[in-house]
Amino acid sequence: MKAFHTFDTNLRRNLLILFAAGLLFWSSTAMFLPILPVYMESIGNSKQEIGIVMGGFAIGLLLFRPILGKLADQYSRKLVLLIGTTVAFLAPFGYLAFTSIPMMMLVRIFHGISIAAFTTGYSALVSDLSPVSVRGEIISYMSLTAPIGLAMGPAMGEYLTAKYGYSTFFLFSSSLAFIGLLGASKVINPPAQIYQQNSSKNEKFWQILLSPRVRVPALVMLLVGISVGSVHVFVSLFIKSTQVDFNAGLFFTIASIASFSFRVFTGKASDRFGRGLFITFGVAAYVLACVILSQANSTFAFILAAIAEGCGGGTVMSMITTLMADRSLPHERGRIFALCIAGFDFGIAIAAPILGFVAEKVSYHNMYGYTAALTSLGLIIFLTLSSKNPLESLRFALGHGQDAYSLNNRE
User: Fold this and answer.
1) pLDDT tens digits for 57-113?
2) Which of 37, 278, 297, 376 gives a 20 to 30 Å CA spacing to 327?
3) Is the confidence at residue 202, as pLDDT, over 60?
């Protein structure tokens, strides 16, 4: 990455520490994806109960992300980073201590605070540090912590559980988060005044959420969140139910490799061609993943679905983050990120219990068919409503027009 070598020593140090902390955080968090649903099933919980508990993670995200976004703007990004890594360190002990559904639900809600805090602080801080001319490139590279962590975490989780059992798994996850906490404590936060300027212009929650620059990305993220939730919560159980000889951890590893590969190229390309084209591609990839899963009954099908899922993850999250950075000023960036990504959180929150019910009553194949339809709706919304009118929206979404809501010229 040529841009990185042009930065001063302090900026490079900050970005490297952030990257290391992010990698440890995501590795710790991703370990739970293939393991927790199977762990809950092993102690006698139904698919719907598993969905309810897993959905608690997104409830924690939804309840606390707006508060944490405001905290990041008014105080510091670093404080919110430390909250996220601290919760990730403590939560695994809760899974060890409690096995009843109500208590596991509370632990899962608490655990959800970790991603709400970490992703809000991390995204805002990286955006603050990134020069506008290479913003897409820097954000994409820094967001590689998620796919790398999602590649390593599930594989480590499967290995530790198979060889040493669930207790060792939970303790190791906590240890990774603790090392990440030590790293986050070394981050140097930019001066506080950058977040306090123009405070008289601060908008309220609903004003921000319903503004044209935020509401469509937030709605698209909600529908994408349903798709992602259906995969993260249920794909391990789905693969197991088909009796196909395919490791669920490998599904997430393949998806993460695909995500990593796309992020390396899309960030720099988006600085040249715009964010819209890559968001369109990413949402379409999520649709394809769900379509494949709705028909999957072989190892090859699950591999294809994992690749499509990774292509979606490698573009949508980093490009939406970059889009929101383009559409916000520094003093409001934490709240803008928090509210837009809250759409994603809400999608995951409703996906787990509702789709768990569908899977219980009908089948996993039908569940993924319904999910594909909902994600297709998100794609249609972005193609037609992402700008000031349908024609401009289509041009922006296909990479032929500028973002009408970009504020880059005002920073």
Assistant:
1) 778 877 888 888 888 888 888 899 999 999 999 999 998 888 888 898 899 999 989
2) 376
3) no
Burial of 132 (0-12, 13-18, 19+ CB in 10 A): middle
Query: In this structure, what token pair is assigned to residue 360?
Result: 């219980």
Q: In this model, does residue 200 exceed pLDDT 60?
A: no
16 HSE (CA, 13 A, CB side): 10
Which residue, 371, 331, 318, 46, is CA-closest to 208?
Answer: 331
Mean of all residue pLDDT scores within the chain: 85
Buried b (16+ CB within 10 A) or exposed e, 179-208: bbbebbeebebbeeeebeeeeeeeeeeeeb
Q: How confident is the model at residue 384 (pLDDT cuts 50, 70, 90)?
A: very high
The set of residues, in sequence order, having a beta carbon less than 8 Å from that of 361 and lying 6+ positions away, is: none
**Nearest C-alpha neighbor of 259 from the set 317, 313, 181:** 313
What Rg, from alpha-carbon coordinates, does the chain have? 20
* Cβ 62 vs Cβ 349: under 8 Å: yes
Domain 2-188+203-404 belongs to what topology? Growth Hormone; Chain: A; (1.20.1250)
199-208 long-range contacts (CB < 8 A, ≥24 apart) are: 199/331, 201/331, 202/331, 202/332, 203/332, 205/66, 205/335, 205/339, 208/332, 208/335, 208/336, 208/339
Q: Reply yes or no on whether the pLDDT at 258 is more than 70.
A: yes
- DSSP codes, 303-352: HHHHHHHHHHHHHHHHHHHHHHHHT--GGGHHHHHHHHHHHHHHHHHHHH
Q: Is 365:355 a contact under the CB 8 Å cutoff?
A: no
Q: Where are the alpha helices (DSSP H) in 8-76?
A: 9-30, 32-42, 47-74
| Sequence ranges of the domains in the chain | 2-188+203-404
Q: What is the pTM of this model?
A: 0.77
**51 versus 148: which is more confidently predicted?**
148
